[in-house]
Amino acid sequence: QVCTQVPYRCYSTPGVGQVQVDMNSETGVATVRLNRPPVNSLNLDVLTELGIALEKLDADRTCRAMVLASAVPGIFSAGLDILEMYQSTPERCVAFWRALQDAWLGLYGSRLVTMAAIEGHSPAGGCLLAMSCDYRVMADGKFQIGLNETRLGIVAPFWFEDVMLNTIGHRETEKALQLGAMYSAQQALSIGLVDKVVPLAEVMPTVQGELKNWLQIPDAARVITKTSMRKQVLDRLRSQKEKDAQFFADFIGRDSVQRSLGAYIASLQKRKS
Ligand SMILES: CCCCCC/C=C\CC(=O)SCCNC(=O)CCNC(=O)[C@H](O)C(C)(C)COP(=O)(O)OP(=O)(O)OC[C@H]1O[C@@H](n2cnc3c(N)ncnc32)[C@H](O)[C@@H]1OP(=O)(O)O
């Protein structure tokens, strides 16, 4: 068990945490694995845990990089837990949204080199997490990635849109968001949504190899550059967090949105039967 070996430090209880953090003090690289079977859907608890983990890593001066991955085979993350949005209360919706905002601000604004190891499906909120890293390596094959919100009858908020714009540009974002497009790894590579596509078994070694390049750059210069590139998008959310959370709760509470979500949940269940 990797967590118990020196020089690894483990921020979560092995086998218990829904966000497992293994910190290798020798390399300064932490691996953060989402661990909420069956599909790593992001509920209030997971988002809170993720936000705290990112905060701790940022404060750990021995940590220089973070790999975001999954402990669940075949899935990076299925995105936000739809059950947090369906038949919920306004208070819970606001708390849920704040946890998402904080986790995202921690990830997109992290001083660390951040890399996504996408070893499975990565729709919606899963795609947001991946896009918020500095670099993405995705497994080739059947897995899909994208912001599919419109297919659920919901709308990707402005900060999801901003991150996608910064990743793949205006024209591709316009198409991707309106259509709620989901891309294969090869398609994602062709529009710049991911940086490298390799066979599943090579995702982690490829991430580790790429990290070596990034870690050759002096931290201070890299961090100043990253901050300068991302500040505008981060500040846009920071300046209107409460308004954004309230808008989310109001929007999700609409009858028409609830009907769409209910139909989408039923379609997910029907797929299985
Ligand atoms: C102003 C308004 C702003 C709103 C902004 C909202 C922003 C972000 C939105 C989101 O992130 S919404 C989430 C969107 N996610 C999806 O559409 C993914 C849906 N899931 C799938 O397509 C598939 O599950 C999968 C990820 C491709 C995996 O397929 P697999 O065959 O491996 O697993 P399933 O059998 O389909 O699923 C197992 C089990 O999990 C349930 N489930 C799947 N995804 C979610 C989810 N996102 N939230 C909650 N539950 C989910 C699925 O229904 C199955 O449940 P059971 O039938 O076993 O009870």
How do the strands and helices of this protein lay out in sequence?
Blueprint: E1 8-10, E2 19-24, E3 29-34, H1 44-59, E4 65-70, E5 74-75, H2 90-108, E6 113-118, E7 120-123, H3 125-131, E8 135-139, E9 144-146, H4 158-168, H5 170-179, E10 183-184, H6 185-191, E11 196-198, H7 203-215, H8 219-238, H9 241-253, H10 255-272
Parallel strand pairs: 3-4, 4-6, 5-7, 6-8, 7-9, 8-11
Antiparallel strand pairs: 1-2, 2-3, 9-10
The structure holds ligand LJEIAPTW.
Organism: Branchiostoma floridae (Florida lancelet)
Pathway: Lipid metabolism; fatty acid beta-oxidation
Pfam family, one: ECH_1
How is this structure best summarized?
The protein has 273 residues and is an alpha/beta fold. Helix content is 49%, strand content 17%.
Detailed description of the structure:
- The protein is an alpha/beta fold and 273 residues long.
- The protein has one domain (2-272): 2-enoyl-CoA Hydratase, Chain A, domain 1, CATH 3.90.226.10.
- It has helices spanning 44-59, 90-108, 125-131, 158-168, 170-179, 185-191, 203-215, 219-238, 241-253, 255-272; strands at residues 8-10, 19-24, 29-34, 65-70, 74-75, 113-118, 120-123, 135-139, 144-146, 183-184, 196-198.
- Helix 2 (90-108) packs across helix 9 (241-253), helix 4 (158-168) packs across helix 5 and helix 4 packs antiparallel against helix 8 (219-238).
- The protein is globular.
- Bound molecules: ligand LJEIAPTW.
